[in-house]
Amino acid sequence: MALAHMDVAGSELLRVEKVDVSIDGREILNDVNFRIDHGEFTGLIGANGSGKTTLFRVILGLQTPQRGEVTVHGEPLQRSNRSLGYVPQKVLFDPDMPIRARDLVALGIDGNRYGLTRRTRANHLAVDEMLFAVDAQEFADRKVGGLSGGEQQRVLIAHALVSRPELLLLDEPLANLDPGSVAEIIALLHKVATQQHVAIFLSAHEMNPLLPVMDRVVYVANGRVASGTTDEVVRPDVLSALYGHHVDVLRVHGRVLVVAGQDSDESSSVADHPELVVE
Amino acid sequence: MNWLFEPGLFANQSVRTALLVGAVVAVVSGVVGIFTVLRGQSFAGHALTDVAMAGGAGAFLAGVAPLVGFVGGGVVGAGAMDVIGVQRVKGRDIATGVVLGAATGLAALFLYLSATQSAATGTTQLILFGSIFTVQSSTLPAVVALSAVVLATLAIIGRPLLLSSLNLELASARGVRLRAIGFVFMVILAVSVGLSAIIIGSILSTALLIGPPASALKLVTRFGAGVVLAVVLGVLATLLGIVLAYDSYYWTSSHRALPVSFFVVVVVVVEFTLASLVQRRRRSKAPVPARAAVHGDPIGWH
Ligand SMILES: Nc1ncnc2c1ncn2[C@@H]1O[C@H](COP(=O)(O)OP(=O)(O)O)[C@@H](O)[C@H]1O
Ligand SMILES: [Mg+2]
Prior knowledge:
The complex is a heterodimer.
Chain A: E1 12-23, E2 26-37, E3 41-45, H1 52-59, E4 67-72, E5 75-76, E6 84-87, H2 101-110, H3 121-133, H4 149-161, E7 167-170, H5 179-196, E8 199-204, E9 216-221, E10 224-228, H6 230-233, H7 236-243, E11 247-252, E12 255-260, H8 266-272
Parallel strand pairs in A: 3-8, 3-9, 6-7, 7-8
Antiparallel strand pairs in A: 1-2, 1-4, 4-5, 9-10, 11-12
Helix pairs in contact in A: 2-3, 2-4, 3-4
Chain B: H1 13-38, H2 42-62, H3 66-84, H4 92-117, H5 123-129, H6 140-166, H7 168-173, H8 178-217, H9 223-247, H10 260-285
Helix pairs in contact in B: 1-6, 1-8, 1-9, 2-3, 2-4, 2-5, 2-8, 3-4, 3-8, 5-8, 6-8, 8-9, 8-10, 9-10
The complex binds adenosine-5'-diphosphate and magnesium ion (MG).
The site of magnesium ion has 5 residues of chain A, from α1.
């Protein structure tokens, strides 16, 4: 992905080091290490239940790891870090929620502030600018709950970006969208990331739609991760080591399919392999 | 209104106090109620009314002002619910139900004791269904002070509370202290319910808490407008209810005034019905644009 600011590209923004997470005595993540650089588009790929949301919660400081640490700009993590924006998974607003798209974006600026401070002109401008950036002016004054899934997703992205974070975490923003909306959201993220020099860390259980825009991939399976460029990670040897049994990586018509090998236990293959396409 | 209602209505001191207390309490109920509905805590609100009922009955037995029992009971109930775990989504209804059951049991005991031990009649009626005309004008300062504290607290925590009502994850990612803010809101809810118990009684507090905000939310697109409309509808129901109840004394030759709580609830229900009709009309006029598929992901699976 081309970056307008070459001076910041390639310098470290986020580092996850030796992170272990157990919940209720069950190990979810084990010795997770990777880094994200300024302005990069990173995919967090893994099957359902592999620990993607847990990893995001650790990065946001909402889940304390048993071991290891997360640093932003080399500094230990703080709660409510202004450098991080977050779009949680499966957010769908109730149609009766009396909140317009524009109000939700404004809460990205002051939703954590106490007291009835008046919204300044600068705030209103920032909201308008962000609605424009995600191409949401058309429905800015409608209730968020009445918008389509893809439209709500765009408003949530604006909500997360309006405080000008350096890293935007998106948890499965493409799940439950039709293919047209998937392409639209990816194009939008790519555009906004480039324009605003924000790094993107996006989780998905399907990596194919992300291949054209991903600079790097963090692949989770069995509580462990492999990270690097797609060419470095999405390889039979790396993924077989990660999964603990043999997998094949097939490239067909520009798509990547991760398939359980012939010698593996077929019954467990479906749950373990996010990329497996059932034809 | 004199051509509609018996003359002398507003000259009566206890009616004036009733209207004033009713209006103040309805404002608080409307504002607190909007958040209660948005947070999906109507059940918790209802449980707190039962705790207020136990508190009110206990206060009566101990010879303390009912307001003290209503509000005090509610606050203790909010604390109990927090301890049992009302904050976790899982088990939230259980914590609420446990407190509700315990409180109702206590209320049954207190009401039984006061009915059998004291000569005063109508205690049960007063605790359960309120008795706005017996509110002393000396209670007014306490009602206003409690209302002011509730509204001021809401003004302070309003934005984080709204964001957490929209989505817990969004709020916690912004650094909102969900647990603290959730507890403060439960206490506010308890106070509000205790206040409305003196007008329409503990049992029906929920109607005033949930009814007007639920009607308002059917009609507005903006949060601020929702708050204003809920307050207007709540105040209207309360004042109309009081006036109608007072007037009902003259409706029959036997001269028996019907209870305020009955009329308040009638107006609340009429408002809700009208709001639903308006909402349905609007929806049928403006067809909702086709939603993008929110189900089945054609490639991956879940
Ligand atoms: N709060 C929790 N309590 C118990 N188990 C949890 C909790 N959060 C996550 N888990 C478990 O951790 C594992 C990883 O979950 P998650 O991070 O949500 O995966 P993903 O987002 O990749 O689908 C799952 O097995 C899930 O059951
Ligand atoms: Mg998840």
